[in-house]
Design brief:
The chain has about 775 residues and is an alpha+beta fold. The chain has four domains: about 20-60 and about 220-375, Up-down Bundle (Multidrug efflux transporter AcrB transmembrane fold); about 90-180, Alpha-Beta Plaits (2-Layer Sandwich), CATH 3.30.70; about 195-220 and about 385-450 and about 550-725, Up-down Bundle (Multidrug efflux transporter AcrB transmembrane fold), CATH 1.20.1640; about 455-530, Alpha-Beta Plaits, CATH 3.30.70.100. The protein contains 24 helices and twelve strands. The chain has helices at about 25-35, 35-55, 70-85, 105-115, 130, 155-170, 185-220, 220-245, 255-285, 290-325, 330-350, 355-360, 390-400, 400-415, 440-450, 465-480, 510-520, 535-570, 570-595, 600-605, 615-645, 650-675, 685-715, 725-735; strands spanning about 90-95, 125, 145-150, 175-180, 425, 460-465, 485-490, 495-500, 530, 615, 755-760, 765-770. Helix 2 packs across helix 8 (about 220-245), helix 8 runs antiparallel to helix 9 (about 255-285) and helix 14 packs parallel to helix 19. The longest helix has about 35 residues, at about 185-220. It is elongated, with a radius of gyration of 32 Å.
């Protein structure tokens, strides 16, 4: 008999000749270890360049971007300017006196003096009670009046810039006058200002908590600083990418929000994955007799071949999910796609280059500044790779009754999703602002004190009709259900602009019903009619989103399935992942509807329920949450696959995988909740909804789904979880990115035509040959 041949195994590492050594990620880890100082120097130069170039992005971004290109509500603005000239007011200035009425000359003179100070180049027109004698511009008690001001500027963005210039002059008034600003420009400006203040406050509130948690989670001060460095690189790099994109297309200012959210959040996730695996690999080599430099290089190569590969696939999956937002025609959603994809990919590049270079320099010093008792000692290489612990025991508990836990958790998630059945979608109005916000106070005052004023009327442009036909058409509109008045505000060269009044907010269901009725009313013979205004814009937005949403959902599901197949070589796992992500996202959306539409917890969270969900936010949350769910899915399945390759036993693989990832996934989720949950302190309702909704979704996904639902599901699927048709399996064997090429086999399974069999103990896969026809007798340990 030939002598027994064994190769000692190292915990956390599959040995040479059978596995990941020689893979692209392994070679990349070795290269970064050798060129670590060059990588860090290049990163310093790139960061400085990104800071200089990307720092100027704020002056190049556009405001708004909610309009739907090609719709009636978008085309009417251009046609109105070409025909009758723009008529709507951009700012409504409310002047109020406690002791004087509008008939008092002193009141008139004070208002006139204030308006005369406005720069002529910035103001196109001013309408007051004294210039129009319109009773609608005077309050019921005669102590307040409105000045309707139209600003200069060819586009809404230009007029917003003008408003910022003239706002200080608008607020100056004579003694005894109180001034309040409302109207479209003031509302948008105050929402933007509130968002900036809220983001600043959220950062001040969350950063100290985040810093403390980073030290607690990473176990040392040095290790805790690594994700912050990656996050800074991701944010600055994404800013540089956005500014470059502004050279060829419009990018909305809303892209900044997703960059700051995902740049730091995913940097923490990726750094935690990589640093944890690096520590594990270093501990596995603690008894190594090799040179320290070789020890670090080997550990880093193994880290890149495992956690680095996971980070790469996770990032590409998240980026693909966010790229689905680019399928929508609205500029702000496409800009969110630009910002999100840029933040994710730059975070990935930093985590796969700068972070490992830093680890190569630090080596064991990554634990410098460790807090006593917080740095978890991972198993030495002499110990079995599966380390029994709390997560291991929990996984085995739920896998003992897989049907009970699978059905029970699924039912719980479906129950949480039931409020979605009654969801109603709405838009943005002044109610998204805090109760005491100036624009909201003005809007409320218009409804109570100035019933004749409509800040957001329905606009109807009629071209190609004579005066009598326009008059008859206006009469038909006036008889529609819900219409309070119809008046002609401008007429020129065969074009007439009508304004249609209605009760309530422009995004209420009643207002939207009026818009539909107006559009359904036949136009005068031979005439063309365009319907616009805030309500029409919202209706066109809803129609456009409903048309593109199935395409976006299909894109996200298809790209996720393809990427997971490339990563794991299974067609079952992608389907399972998509179904579980849908359950997770649906449950979190159900909670959002229960809170923000139905008004539960409104007192505690400090918001006013509008009875509807702002229609664009669920789409944005869907893209982000689906991507983040895959982040944790890829990380968990990667470690499960490692254990499966070693043992060929489903229970051992899932328990071992969850033991190694449970603490990391929940820690990453906790840190991400702090980053995202800070948005829940915002005074803007839809920003608060993002913070609360995403925090709930992350908690559900990282705990209920990954820890309680995934293990029993994989237990029920058994070996079929890794199944793929023959052609796809062969393709994956040639082109896929599996971490190991050794097939998963169950203990005692026959190998080949001879009587040789596989036997296993935790951490060792042995082949015993008992026939001369078999391979040379011996034992191969892994």
């Amino acid at each position: 008999m030939m002598p027994t041949m064994t190769r000692p195994a190292r915990s956390g590492q599959i040995p040479h000749g059978s596995d990941r050594e020689g893979t692209a990620f392994w070679r990349w880890g070795r290269l970064v270890a050798r060129r670590r100082r060059l990588v860090l120097a290049a990163a310093a130069v790139a960061t400085a360049a990104a800071g200089i170039w990307g720092g100027g992005v704020f002056g190049t971004l556009s405001n708004g971007g909610f309009e739907t290109p090609g719709s009636d509500s978008a085309r009417i603005d251009q046609r109105v300017q070409q025909t009758v000239g723009r008529q709507g007011a951009d700012v409504l200035v409310v002047y109020r006196s406690q002791d004087r009425t509008v008939e008092d000359p002193a009141f008139h003179n004070a208002v006139a003096a204030a308006l005369d100070r406005l720069p002529a180049a910035d103001v196109r027109s001013v309408a007051t009670f004294w210039t129009t004698r319109s009773p609608a511009l005077v309050s019921a008690d005669r102590h307040a009046t409105i000045a309707a001001i139209q600003l200069a500027g060819a586009s809404p963005e230009d007029r917003m810039q003008t408003f910022r210039l003239v706002e200080p002059d608008l607020r100056r008034a004579g003694p005894g006058l109180d001034v309040s600003l409302g109207g479209p420009a003031a509302v948008n400006s105050q929402i933007n200002q509130q968002v900036r203040e809220d983001l600043g406050r959220a950062e001040r509130w969350s950063m100290p908590i985040l810093l403390v948690l980073l030290v607690l989670v990473f176990g040392s001060v040095v290790a805790a600083g690594l994700p912050l460095a990656v996050g800074a690189l991701a944010t600055l790099g994404a800013f540089a990418v956005l500014r470059t994109l502004t050279l060829v297309t419009d990018v909305s200012v809303f892209a900044i929000n997703i960059v700051t959210l995902l740049g730091l959040g995913l940097a923490i996730d990726y750094a935690l994955f990589v640093v944890s695996r690096f520590r594990e690999e270093m501990h596995a080599r603690r008894d190594s007799t090799g040179a320290p430099a070789d020890e670090v290089a080997e550990a880093l190569a193994a880290t890149m071949a495992t956690a680095g590969r996971t980070v790469a696939f996770s990032a590409v999956t998240v980026a693909a999910s966010l790229a689905g937002l680019a399928l929508f025609s609205q500029n702000f959603l496409r800009s969110m796609a630009f910002g999100g994809v840029a933040a994710v990919l730059v975070a990935m590049l930093a985590a796969l280059s700068v972070l490992p270079a830093g680890l190569a320099v630090l080596g064991r010093r990554v634990d410098a500044g460790a807090l006593a008792g917080l740095t978890r000692r991972l198993p030495r290489r002499s110990r079995p790779p599966r380390v029994a612990g709390g997560w291991d025991r929990f996984a085995r508990t739920v896998m003992r009754r897989p049907v009970l836990y699978t059905v029970g958790v699924t039912a719980l998630l479906l129950a949480a999703a039931t409020p979605l059945l009654g969801v109603r979608f709405g838009g943005i109005d002044t109610r998204v602002l805090p109760a005491g916000a100036e624009s909201r106070v003005v809007e409320d005052s218009l409804h109570t004190d100035f019933p004749g004023v409509r800040a957001f009327p329905i606009e109807v442009l009629v071209t190609g009709a004579d005066r009598s036909a326009v008059a008859g058409y206006a009469q038909r509109l006036g008889r529609l259900d819900g219409v309070t008045e119809v008046r002609e505000v401008a007429a020129r060269d065969g074009a007439s602009l009508l304004e249609v009044g209605y009760p309530g907010s422009p995004v209420d269901q009643q207002a939207l019903h009026v818009v539909r009725e107006v559009r359904a009313t036949p136009a005068p013979a031979g005439a063309q009619v365009l319907v616009g205004g805030a309500g029409a814009e919202h209706l066109d937005l809803r129609s456009s989103l409903a048309e593109r949403l199935p395409w976006m959902a299909g894109w996200v599901a298809a790209t996720t399935a393809v990427l997971l197949f490339v990563a794991f070589g299974s067609v079952v796992l992608p389907l399972k992942a998509v179904v579980m992500n849908v359950l997770s996202v649906a449950a979190s959306f159900g909670v959002v509807v229960w809170i923000f539409q139905e008004g539960h917890l409104s007192g505690l969270l400090g918001f006013t329920s509008t009875g509807a969900i702002e229609i664009t936010q669920p789409i944005l949350m869907l893209a982000i949450l689906f991507g983040l769910s895959m982040d944790y899915e890829v990380f968990l399945l990667s470690r499960v696959r490692e254990q499966w390759d070693r043992t060929g036993d489903v229970t051992e693989a899932v328990a071992g995988g969850l033991q190694r990832t449970g603490r990391i996934i929940t820690s990453a989720a906790l840190l991400l909740v702090v980053v995202i949950g800070a948005f829940s302190t915002s005074g803007i309702t839809f920003i608060k909804m993002i913070g609360v909704g995403m925090a709930v979704a992350i908690v559900i996904d990282a705990t209920v789904v990954r820890a309680v639902l995934v293990p029993p599901t994989l237990r029920l699927l058994g070996c079929s979880a890794w199944w793929a048709p023959g052609a796809l399996r062969r393709w994956h064997e040639r082109h896929g990115f599996a971490e190991a090429v050794r097939p998963a086999v169950a203990p005692g399974a026959p190998i080949g035509p001879g009587p040789g069999r596989i036997t296993s103990t935790p951490g060792n896969l042995r082949f015993s040959a008992t026939s001369p026809r078999s391979s040379p007798g011996g034992v191969y340990s892994s």
